[in-house]
Task: structure prediction
Amino acid sequence: MTYVDASNLPHHVGIIMDGNGRWAELRGEPREAGHKAGSAAVRRVVRAARRLGLTALTLYAFSEQNWARPTGEVDALMGLLHEFLVSERNEILDNEIRLVAIGDLERLPPFVRDALDPLRMASGDNRKMTLALALSYGGQEEIARAARDLAVEAREGKLDPQTIDTRAIASRLPSLGVGEPDLIIRTGGEHRISNFLLFGAAYAELAFTDVLWPDFKEEDLFEALASYQRRERRFGRVLSHATSPRTASPLDGGAIGV
Result:
């Protein structure tokens, strides 16, 4: 059994959900079957995060680079996304979850937008937890978009280039609307962040697991959170023994076991 200190939770957790395809291949099934099983894991983890009391959860659901996958696989992923948005609508609203989306949303097919946009609007005032779906998202692309916006403002005389600093860039990154990620979890055995929350991940703690995403359960989430709580977050500083890692976090503004 893994115990998590409910008074020392990360504010914002990001998850790179990797391993759907390999999960299916190991069972001799098409990749689409892995994505369907992965969708069930999304439901499990979102519910666990809400019960635990996480403030924000960002799920890397579809990257900018994923558009290059075979058309059939992309269509299956879009279908599962639509199904999730429709089937989970009531649970999201009933549990006061605010749903947001980051990425190049204009690239999403209309039938997905038709389910996504009304739910984002309907849940906009919810405050129990924020669930951010990274869709057609890329960290490099997000930073480049922010740089273009800043350049346009400077050219039009609305912004002094000398005032552009990390805060100015961060203020234009939708992925940081819920704050920088404290913890990024990647499933599937790979040890990289694959263009996910690049700017915000500067001081994020990283947790890697060999568990394939469709097999990722509440216990696995708790293990990652417990690992996070055992670490000392210094942000380039030296902490005194009297200073707790979370108190020192620039994001700061009972035990639970499973």
In short: The chain is about 40% helix and 15% strand. Helices lie at 20-26, 31-52, 71-87, 89-94, 110-122, 139-155, 166-170, 218-229. The CA atoms of residues 152 and 158 lie 9 Å apart. The first helix runs from residue 20 to 26.
